[in-house]
What we know:
The protein has 343 residues and is an alpha+beta fold. It has 2 domains: 258 residues, Jelly Rolls (Sandwich), CATH 2.60.120.10; 69 residues, no CATH class. Strand 2, helix 2 and strand 3 form a beta-alpha-beta unit. Helix 3 runs antiparallel to helix 4. The longest helix has 16 residues. InterPro entries: Cupin_8, JmjC_dom, RmlC-like_jellyroll. It comes from Sphingomonas telluris. This is Cupin-like domain-containing protein.
Amino acid sequence: MAEADPGAIGQIAPIEEISIADAPALDEQLRNATKPFVVRSLVSDWPLVEAGKKSGREAREYLLRKRRNAQFTVSIGEPGTGGRLFYDDAMQMNFRTVRAKLPEIFAQIDAAEDQADPPPIYLASIDMHDFFDGLHEANHVDLGKRDCLASIWIGTRTRIAAHNDFPQNLACVAVGRRRFTLFPPDQFRNLYLGPIDNTPAGRAVSMADLHNPDFAAHPRFREALKYAQVAELDAGDALYIPSMWYHHVEGLDRFNILVNYWWRETPRWLGQPQDALNHAMLSIRDLPEGEKAHWRELFDYYVFGKPEEVTAHIPEKGRGVLGPLTTETASRIRSFLLRQLSR
């Protein structure tokens, strides 16, 4: 592997930091934001943050008191990986996923806490409402009328390759420290994304190693680094990640907890763009070039073009799904697709 270029990595620009006075100010900032930003000490008054400042074990005890008697999904890696949850040489995951009760998982973390390079142990995107009683009520951000999914991420030192998410994201560090390295959405070609059907956590990830980039194999990654932004967050700090921004995430301490909120600015009944992309690969990508070119024009016309040009010649009452989508017409499309895909 080619040697890393410390100069290229070291010049990453910091993410903008802003001050927030109260919930209305945060609401306004989120409504108008087009770029990521950091808010220091946004959640420093959380009981979970206070417990974590005493020790990792104190934070784990706090969570155990609020846990439900449920099986949690946990990823367990191998020692010597530096906490990187990624692919192995055979393009399989370098970690295994099991289900266990939270006391059992935390016992493993307790046993490995003083090891020099312990196996990474990681609970990802655990729904706070479904798996805990009163945890969200005691530790949450007032996000107004946003319909949010509140998740907690718990683990040892970990490195998660750059990936993106469709929803908006407010990530709050509750215990430990985290480093986020962000890339704008338009850098996806320079990130060398891996497969979309074999992923560590459901989203395609960058195959370039931020800690040790191989610029011979991934030369365009140098260009991505020019547009990267980085922030190191302490317990109590928060980071806003706009929709579709790629983020490389590192848990820097022996024990780390993150709470994040996902929300969409569009109605929940709209479809997922990734589903459309997957279906397009199934049905269009391998067509003859001439047919594929025609479908590109149809997508430009019906999806990316101006709706008024598509429907101007059709009486308003007869436009169906070509008109502005509603819960009814969206349901009609979904039912039609399910019938077609099940044939």
